[in-house]
């Protein structure tokens, strides 16, 4: 891969022209954006239609991405390719036929769970994890067939390990960090990360403060040293960035993420009311304009230029090339 690409494999911002311009200021060739948390099929299509309007309004900044070649096109013409993904399988409802329909509409990643038990697998906040369900096995098979990537970012341990084993194609964890570095519910064990790397899967490192060592006070050096250690564990070609940026979102959006329509009570997630809203970002990564800081930080901890380019985007691009097309 001759060029060094820059890809962020997860954002859920309060979308606006200002944020699209931040993409460009940060040199982002591609961004994977969440279009579903708890929405059903029709609501998800409505959100995709909103994106169509943004593509029409800001054609000089963004366009819809469907393949790895769209990332190359974005670099060539100075725009950002936007790829759709789901943080919950709610969009397929209980209908496996919608997997192919949604891939046709542009979906490229789907989590089998958010934080709770789903029809497909178990989320990371559940006390018990019985693993991938009967429907989950069939949906994974169908996702493999059409080129919709299995994402286990919010899934529990057994479910994640089973998804890696069941899937005939490599899966992704688009936005999480090692639990050995910071023990948040969603961060992943070394067993999971080792299995993910050995299977050809990808991990995207998150800058969401609740998942950082030291939270908002996490240092750039600590973050980049963690990336370097994970490269040793998984292989430097199996890691990238998935910031989980929620730029300009109000705290009320956290309530939608964690509560949806499944409860009348507020779910505080990581276990305390102090985690109820969006925490301040670390001072070295405020938004998409700060990707240069991560690149410089990786250089400072001794990563070589090939591996840095891989982390910043080339590894995700290779994964896109291999996984977004039908089997």
Question: What does this protein structure show overall?
Answer:
With 327 residues, the chain is α/β, with parallel strands linked by helices. It has a single domain, classed as Alpha-Beta Barrel (TIM Barrel), CATH 3.20.20. The protein has eleven helices and nine strands. It has helices at 17-25, 41-57, 68-77, 98-104, 134-146, 157-166, 190-198, 220-234, 252-259, 291-300, 305-323; strands at residues 7-11, 30-36, 62-64, 80-86, 107-111, 149-151, 172-173, 202-205, 239-241. The strands form two sheets. Strands 1, 2, 3, 4, 5 and 6 form a six-stranded parallel beta sheet that branches. A three-stranded parallel beta sheet has the order 7-8-9. α5 (134-146) links the parallel β5 (107-111) and β6 (149-151). α6 (157-166) packs parallel to α7 and α10 (291-300) packs across α11 (305-323). The longest helix has 19 residues, at 305-323. The chain is globular and about 45 Å long. The model has no long low-confidence stretch (mean pLDDT 95).
